[in-house]
Amino acid sequence: MKSKRHEKILKLIEEKIIVTQDELQDCLLNLGYNVTQSTVSRDIKELRIIKAQDRNGTYRYMSTAGRGLSVSDKSRDHFTDIFAKSVIDVKYALNNIVIKCYNGMASSACVAFDTLFSNDILGSLAGDDTIIVVTKSETDSKNLAAQLLNIIK
């Protein structure tokens, strides 16, 4: 049931402009999926769905995963753009990086970051306006922080 619901969510956000979790929940309820807001929220997180600007300038839910997204040059540019427009500053200490974002943008920036740099880190965690990244060493943090600063400047 969960995998079918996930497939339906990906299809819905591809075919319709869905801006809120409530809209997505309503669409699923109308299709016979008995879901709560917390279920929709979990599904969004598991599917790595972000709210980003589409080609028409509308902020809406968009998929970054779930269908075997490979990071092509076009996708890389898209995620780099999301990261650059969301992040204010990057600093590192020891094997940690702290990424400060505009309020409410850390989740989207973190998905973009994970898509671009997941092989270079141990893990990341996003809050509302801050992302914490853990790397293997201080040298790794220093090098990655420098790359990230180049993206946002």
Provide a descriptive summary of the structure in words:
With 153 residues, the protein is α+β, with helices and mostly antiparallel strands. Helices cover 49% and strands 21% of the residues. The strands form two sheets. Strands 3-4-6-5 form a four-stranded antiparallel sheet. Strand 5 (123-126) and strand 6 (130-134) form a beta hairpin. The radius of gyration is 16 Å and the shape is elongated.
What's a concise summary of this model?
This protein is of the alpha+beta class and about 150 residues long. The protein has 6 helices and 6 strands.
Low-confidence stretches: 66-70
Helix content: 40-55%
Strands, total number: 6
Structural class: alpha+beta
Strand content: 15-25%
Shape: elongated
Largest sheet: 4 strands, antiparallel
- Mean pLDDT comes to 88
Helix count from the secondary structure assignment:
6
Distance between the termini: 45 Å
SSE succession: HHHEEHEEHEEH
- Radius of gyration, whole Å: 16 Å
Adjacency order of strands in the biggest sheet:
3-4-6-5
Protein topology:
Blueprint: H1 2-15, H2 21-30, H3 37-46, E1 49-53, E2 59-63, H4 73-86, E3 87-93, E4 96-101, H5 106-117, E5 123-126, E6 130-134, H6 138-152
Antiparallel strand pairs: 1-2, 3-4, 4-6, 5-6
Relevant terms:
single chain; about 150 residues; alpha+beta; two-stranded antiparallel sheet; about 50% helix
